[in-house]
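Quarterly update from the structural biology core.
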Amino acid sequence: MSTVPKPWLNSYPPHVPAEVAVDQYASLAELLEEAFRRHASRDASACFEERLRFRDIDELSQSLGAWFQSKGLARGARIALMMPNLPQYMVAIAAVLRAGYVVVNVNPLYTARELEHQLKDSGAESIVVLENFAITLEEVIDRTAVKHVVLASMGDLLGFFKGQMVNFVVRHVRKMVPEYRLPLDGGRTVTRFNMALAEGSRMTLRRPDIGPDDVAFLQYTGGTTGISKGATLLHRNVVANILQSEAWFKPMLDRVDGQALTVVCALPLYHIFALTICYLMGARLGMMNLLIPNPRDIPGFVKSLRSYRVNMFPAVNTLFNALANESEFARLDFSGLVVSNGGGMAVQRATAEKWLKITGCPVVEGYGLSETSPVATSNRLDVQEFTGTIGLPIPSTEVSIRDDAGRDVALGEAGEICIRGPQVMAGYWNRPDETAKVMTADGFFRSGDIGVMDERGYVKIVDRKKDMILVSGFNVYPNEIEQVVNLHPGVLECAAIGVPDERSGEAVKLFAVKRDPTLSEDDLAAYCRENFTAYKRPKYIEFRDGLPKTNVGKILRRELRSGAG
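Predicted structure, tokenized:
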């Protein structure tokens, strides 16, 4: 096994250990149940000015978990969750895990094509979906293994009168719920979320024997090839990252005395960053998640923040930037804010400086991937200014910078960032060939990012090994864009690249050669809207007579990037 020097340990802040005992719990279910008991009387979530305590999450998730078990699902069955940030999501995650099943997180804004692939690839047999997105499910459900649908609504868990009012506004005033009709053939069931809770409350949750090597999450990502595949995260992977992150964050959070902590959960819970840091580590520490269902509504977001004294604010650069440029945001009380942690995409210095000026709390950048559950590195939380690096490997984590031959490079030299630790995934779901491409013989995950480590152990990303495009913290893979666009009858060939964008870090630019001379930019843009969720859609479309290629016919994206620059 490779011996990796660890210069970063000399740069650790006080009270942060080099190693963490990550085998304290047999499963996430065990960790969550202990947290629910220990923090029973504390608030676990706040949404629409309504709060749920950890005791409530405990009881509701037992009911929903028992309901799932009553459907005859085998241990380890996959259950998809397709919702924005709502308390129903927190309940559903705990229910699925405690019942011995596997969570498949789904972006609720997925197109029918994207949803169908994920449901079929995961083999999901059940889904909890917010009714606003049921029309997408309706399009594909007959081509999937889904037999049990739980329909959530925005007003669930808000009490009868408030819930009814919220649902009326959502459905009839704002018309946010398109008409749908889910087929009931083949023994399929469709049950309202609150009805499933009511039925489950009369049942008893059977306690399955869940072990550290059981699968907890299938977290879908494009990996290195653009083929959407599930990073298989075992219970031990996610438990480890919760405990690793706790060791890193707790010394700073302990500075907040005399009150329960509040974390802003504006990043979507279907994204691994918010899932682990906001919900799961938050439960471990007894933090209340301030759930923001629609962070794009910046004025509404700021209005929600006025009612709370927040202590921790995870976000991506685009969100930090949008809030920092909202005049009302600067009028909020930031006296309790001790951690502003950035991830998902590179934090820009201008944004970090503006945020610090307004809040007095520096943005601390970290780094991770779905494949690492996600946190691999972080800057010290006691920094006073933006560093421009992704920080140090967190406890029980090794980072090796390697050349194309797999050899460690010298400090200060560029190479691929490779990560080893208990948080690294078991592999890609049912794709051993893809797993082999990213795992080394000595157990390191090859990230595909090119970085440099300095003599203090700080890592800086300098380039990407692959052609991945990073839009607002989400991976976009040119292969996927090109494969779908090339199916358009009016397109002869195409190529997608990332171009700099002030708002989202990068945006997708599509180059296309016409097969049909009448094809317009509007036609192609409309086609992309039908087939891609918002962050994947090309922001720019440029028609060309031909695309640059190698002598064997491979399109040269690097030349397109050079020309675009």
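Residues 472 and 504 are 5 Å apart (CA to CA).
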